[in-house]
Amino acid sequence: MLWSEILTSSIVATVVSGIISWIGKRYLDKKLEIEKANHTKKLEDLKAENQKVLENYRARLKNSEIYFNRQLTACDEIHALCQSMLPKNKFPNMEWDDALEDMALEMERIETEAQKLYTKFYSVLPDSILTKLNASIRYAGRCKV
User: Residue 117: how many CB atoms within 10 A of its CB?
Assistant: First the structure.
């Protein structure tokens, strides 16, 4: 009888152990699914937030690029105006007075072009450049023939 009781208790212990193991596995599997779902949702939220930040930076970069291109265009046009103000060497022995006379004859054109540049690029040029450009407009207005 001793062997049959030991055998019965062993079988009962094995069955109980199996049932507890199966219940524990089911519980842990369910818990793991819940944790996976929570982490997946958090990950998707972070991805969406990062995508918004990325789009914001892309828009700011594009605006900066446009602003820089406008400034570069303004600098190119101001440089072209400065180059056009220089007197041309019309003949080999051209003297300073001849150069000044040529420049004086161009003052109205210079004033008009400088005013157009001031108006066109007012929003992108720094104040220091705008001040100098405005001073050159006033000077050209006083010096025109």
Answer: 20
CA 63 to chain centroid, in Å, comes to 6
91 DSSP 8-state letter = S
Residue 73 and residue 120: Cα distance in Å, rounded? 11
**What residue has token string 């407009």?**
137
| Whether the predicted pLDDT of 111 surpasses 60 | yes
* 1, pLDDT greater than 60: no
| pLDDT over 70 at 46, yes or no | yes
| pLDDT of 145 higher than 70 | no
pLDDT at 73: 96
Coil vs helix vs strand at 15:
helix
Tokens representing residue 126 in the block: 């720094």
CA atoms within 13 Å, Cβ hemisphere of 46: 6
Angle, CA 125 vertex, CA 120 and CA 127 arms, to 5°: 120
Residue type at 117? L
In terms of Cβ atoms closer than 10 Å to its own Cβ (0-12, 13-18, 19+), residue 95 is exposed
